[in-house]
């Protein structure tokens, strides 16, 4: 996705109230930004629970992040990542950060997972759509270009 480690570390620090140095030290120890993000979120207390993440909302934010350009793009990306991290529950932060970094570590090729997410979003957004129909294939082809 083109998201650098330093931007992800900045977003984790901002979302969890920890310093970048603390995050970096934990990454050195654990060897995985996703695990550090999950651990950092699990230690955090919040007054109000944010809305749950959905496949569609995460997909839309990933799409928006990849299409950003211009002035203060890094800050905008950081804020979007931060908002997703704040909404993460349980192990979601681990896989969100790994997806952003392009290091899923789950034994699947990234493209296979992205295709599965794309199909899930298309099917969720249009319950009447038949999997083998021409309209489905067109929407899948368009969404896969992202």
TrEMBL record:
InterPro entries: ATP-dep_DNA_ligase, DNA_ligase_ATP-dep_N, DNA_ligase_N_sf. One of its GO terms (biological process) is DNA repair. It holds the Pfam family DNA_ligase_A_N. It comes from the Eukaryota. The keyword Ligase applies. Residues 1-117 form the DNA ligase ATP-dependent N-terminal domain. GO terms for cellular component: mitochondrion; nucleus. Keywords: DNA damage, DNA recombination, DNA repair, Ligase. The keyword Coiled coil does not apply. Belongs to the ATP-dependent DNA ligase family. This is DNA ligase ATP-dependent N-terminal domain-containing protein. The lineage of its organism: Eukaryota, Metazoa, Ecdysozoa, Arthropoda, Chelicerata.
């Amino acid at each position: 996705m083109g998201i650098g480690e330093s931007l992800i570390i900045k977003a984790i620090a901002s979302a969890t109230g920890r310093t970048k140095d603390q995050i970096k030290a934990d990454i050195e120890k654990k060897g995985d930004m996703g695990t550090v993000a999950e651990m950092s979120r699990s230690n955090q207390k919040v007054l109000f629970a944010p809305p749950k993440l959905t496949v569609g909302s995460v997909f839309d934010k990933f799409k928006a992040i990849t299409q950003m350009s211009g002035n203060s793009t890094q800050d905008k990306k950081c804020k979007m990542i931060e908002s997703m991290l704040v909404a993460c529950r349980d192990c979601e932060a681990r896989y969100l950060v790994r997806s952003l970094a392009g290091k899923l570590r789950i034994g699947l090729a990234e493209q296979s997972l992205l295709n599965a997410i794309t199909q899930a979003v298309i099917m969720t957004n249009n319950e009447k759509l038949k999997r083998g129909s021409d309209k489905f294939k067109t929407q899948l082809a368009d969404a896969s270009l992202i």
